[in-house]
Specification:
The chain is α/β, with parallel strands linked by helices. Helix content is 46%, strand content 9%. Helix 10 packs parallel to helix 11. It holds the Pfam family DEAD.
Length: 545
């Protein structure tokens, strides 16, 4: 196989391995005659015997032993390094495991690393941190050696946003010190766990996630490496406690799909909860349908009539003197108490649009930025809908940003316009809208592949990161509440995913996310009316929407 394929396979068993570290291992194996390389392709030559001593190096059975780490780094601008050049000056870590004896043996580690010169030292944040640095600083190679010794036989490294930050920074610091990277352990990004367990938080800053999870924090001492490591460990504990409260069918699905994932293996070890039974299309569809009942009424009526057609009554506070919707009053409603400027051009545009609609004529209108065009269009749309319950309005936008803005305006207006929220939908192309049928197939295939069995429908399920994305996606879909969240949860467009998740996939699996999302989109078809699936009433194709 080529180097990219080898890296993907290696990360199935060793998620933290870097391309550089793997290349060194290949060279070592080649020198022993175990593999040969030709034109970038690696081929096996022999099967190595595993001696008794090597057996002792393999991961022990029993509870996973994890180390939660955090680093504080000084940063200065650099033309050679995107985001600046970094040097770690503080490393903090705590042990986390169901093996209480191992944790108590050496629960915490903290050390301060020597920076290159006084200019770097001037970048340390806070007078207290600088004072401690000057009192306790040691050479970087000494600190990193001590950390590796303290790490001992740990199975996993955990860090909050470690994929984009701590893990790579630690590897770079080891390289500068002439030491090997901390490889041979699983790497768990606690930010991924937070996103998967609590998919609808307003903020995923560590302090905000901790507050949402009921974790006490010392706000004044955050950005201290040891304090942040402790808080991260508590956040992981809160996530584990949340997962422990999931129903057995949900845990069975997540644990089955997440087999081989460092994050979910850690959760399973900390909960000591083993899934019972397997998953199949029928059980997954029933589980998801039960969750989607929380959305409210099914999107497909039993009589198969088109959904979403109903009378809309407009409140008097939105109407102008002539009985039409006034765009300025819409702006006041959307602003929710903030001052709104009266815009004569917006009034003129709304009157012109209404006249064009009344006479059944096409129209083309151009207005400068700041006119308030979107609310003028919404005013004409609401007048049209309120006049006849059988009418529809389609507002097509040139950009996703404007589509999102209009969706936000509709949600704001729904606070004062009963029924508007249930009539509205955000529609994207088939490639950008989830197929519940394809999602079920992907989840079942992922569980099969994770269990070492052959999966035939979704070709990406062999990648553990794809399986992690599936877990995040199905939990986000199942816990969506309100139309705005449902609109977002139905989207399989890269731009609608959290930035962290996009960067996480890019770092660990490369530029494959768009292909992954397309595999669970409505390009792959969906449940049809009358199909008999419990998810059919909750299936909303692009055409139906």
């Amino acid at each position: 196989m080529d180097s990219d394929a080898l890296l993907r396979v290696a990360r199935e068993f060793w998620p933290g391995v870097s391309r550089r570290r793997l290349a060194q291992l290949v060279r070592d194996a080649e020198s022993l005659g175990l593999v040969r390389t030709s034109d970038g392709v690696v081929e096996a030559c022999a099967v190595a015997d595993i001696t008794d001593s090597e057996e002792g190096d393999r991961r022990r059975p029993g509870a996973l032993r994890a180390v939660v780490l955090h680093v504080e780094a000084a940063v200065r601008p650099s033309a050679q390094h995107a985001g600046g050049e970094r040097r770690i000056y503080q490393l903090g870590a705590v042990r986390l495991s169901a093996d209480a004896g191992w944790v108590v043996e050496a629960p915490e580690f903290e050390a301060w690393l020597q920076l290159p010169d006084p200019e770097w030292e001037g970048l340390i944040r806070g007078d207290q941190a600088l004072a401690r640095y000057r009192e306790e600083v040691r050479a970087a190679e000494e600190v990193l050696g001590a950390f590796r010794e303290w790490l001992g036989d740990a199975d996993a490294l955990v860090a909050y946003n470690g994929t984009a930050a701590d893990f790579g920074w630690l590897d770079e610091e080891c390289s500068r010190a002439g030491l090997p990277a901390v490889d041979g352990v699983l790497r768990v990004d606690a930010l991924y766990l937070a996103q998967a367990v609590w998919p609808w938080l307003d903020s995923y800053r560590l302090a905000d996630v901790a507050a949402s999870g009921g974790v006490p924090t010392q706000a004044a001492r955050l950005h201290d490496a040891l304090v942040d490591a402790r808080v991260t460990a508590l956040v992981v504990g809160a996530a584990v406690e949340e997962v422990a409260g999931w129903s057995e069918p949900w845990w069975r699905l997540v644990a089955s799909v997440g087999t081989g994932s460092a994050a979910w293996e850690l959760v399973a070890s900390l909960t000591d909860r083993k899934p019972v039974g397997g998953v199949d299309d029928e059980s997954v569809a029933e589980l998801l349908a039960e969750a989607l009942h929380e959305w409210g009424e099914p999107v497909r009526a039993p009589d198969r009539e088109s959904p979403g057609l109903a009378a809309l009554t407009l409140p008097a506070q939105l109407l102008g003197p002539g009985g039409r919707v006034d765009p300025h009053r819409l702006a006041v409603a959307v602003a929710a108490g903030r001052e709104v400027e009266w815009r004569p051009a917006q009034q003129e545009m709304a009157r012109w649009l209404g006249a064009q609609v009344d006479t059944g004529r096409d129209g083309l209108c151009e207005a400068p930025t700041g006119t308030g065009k979107s609310l003028a269009v919404l005013a004409a749309a609401l007048d049209w809908l309120a006049a006849d319950p059988g009418r529809r309005v389609v507002i097509s936008t040139f950009t996703r940003q404007l589509q999102g803005q209009l969706a936000g305006d509709v949600m704001a207006l729904s606070r004062v316009t009963p029924g508007l929220e249930s009539l509205a939908d955000v529609v994207k192309g088939r490639r950008n809208r989830v197929s519940l049928r394809a999602l079920v197939a992907a989840l079942v295939d992922a569980a099969e592949a994770a269990g070492g069995r052959r999966a035939s429908r979704i070709r990406f399920v062999g990648d553990v990161i794809f399986r992690e994305v599936l877990v995040w996606f199905v939990r986000r879909l199942a816990t969506a509440r309100g139309r705005a969240q449902v609109w977002s949860a139905r989207s399989v467009e890269v731009q609608d995913l959290p930035t962290f998740l996009v960067e996480y996939v890019q770092a660990l699996s490369g530029g494959v996310l768009a292909l992954w999302l397309a595999s669970v989109s409505q390009e792959a078809e969906d449940y049809r009316p009358g199909s008999g699936s419990p998810l059919a009433p909750w299936t909303d194709s692009v055409g139906e929407a």
